[in-house]
Amino acid sequence: MSKKSRKTRTAGKVAVALILAFPLPSGATEPTTVPPLTLEKTIKLVQGHHPSLKAAIEDISAADARVTQSKSGYYPQISAAAGYTAITPVSEMSFGGGAPVKFMPNDNYEVKVTAKMNLLDFGRRDGNVDLALSGKKMAEQSLDLSRRELSWQTVQLFYGTLFLRESIKVEETQITALNKALDYAKKRYQAGTATPFDVFSTEVRIAAARNRTLDLEHELRSSELTLYRLTGIEETHPLRLEGSFAATTTPDHVTTGLVAQALAQRVEAKLTEEQEKMAQQRHSLAMKESLPVVTGALSVGFNNGYQPDIYQIRNNVAGNLRVEVPLFTGYHTSAKEQESAAMVRAAAQRKVDTRQQIQNDVEESVHALQTSSEKIVTTEAQVKQAELAAQHARIRYENGMATTLDLLDTEASLAQAELARLQAAYACILNNYKLKRATGKL
User: Does residue 246 or residue 369 have the better pLDDT?
Assistant: First the structure.
């Protein structure tokens, strides 16, 4: 062995030893893979990452702050003030030819702390607090509504992605079968038992299937990109979705009470009830606009200007009790009462419309679920028939007892039947979740 080769081998051993002694830093390790995503995990990721839910949470914080603001009327409003006033000239008078006497100093100083409080307003403070509490409750219900709608969008996107993946598998299976048929067609053409039209027809069918696969792959990529964006997962990690299209139907005796359940659980029904309540609270406040308001104030401070020594700073206390009765407001109060009364009637009508819409949603969802469940049974029979027809056609084609067109038609019928079965299962799953959404369970 030459000296150069011995040096090369020694350097290699040293390099291996160094690698074993000093492993690569954590940043150089293989990237961690994202665990499989079930529907529940996907919904949690989307809800934890979506900006609209974060904004809705901030709306609740703002509504809670408004509740605190409305309760400030129960406490006195305390303020401190300090001031200096220069007056020239000031009133003065002389008695018996003596030196003139000033009634106030030229330099006036004042420091005081004042507490003001609404003593009696005939329920206005309570009404404002109730109105703010209703606003907070509506903000919380709006958050629940956003969560539900985002969950529904995630369900559609999750199963839509699975549906596209399964559809691509169906097309790839058809392409595999068509490629096998193309090989037979070429062999038969070389043997003189087939025409160039048979080969060309098979190639056209393969090209059409590949075009459909390309379209499905494009839709799948778009769906996956949306999932990446909504869940916050990096695009370098593959999306492994765990889900199936096995669905169970809802028996008729279970669906009978779904309308009442939906009216009790749907966020929209709760929102319209709260909106009607808020309209009534505003109307009550508007009716109290013409009532008197009693306020009190107490001030404690120091200032000068008191006889006999008008320059001496002294402490003083002042109290005030004020009753204010609105007599004429330029028709503002009466117009506000009319506006609030109209808002109450409008909220009642919106409540009726929402309840009717909820009932329609439940009935339509139940019918759609039953229809898709029946389609699963019929498409399953179609797939079995198409599979048998395709098997017979392949055997007959290989034995020269069937034409190329017969084989291609049976392969196309099989693919269409499998896609129809997949579509029925996909629709059944979505209709099942649609019913949950309609009843307020999602």
Answer: 369
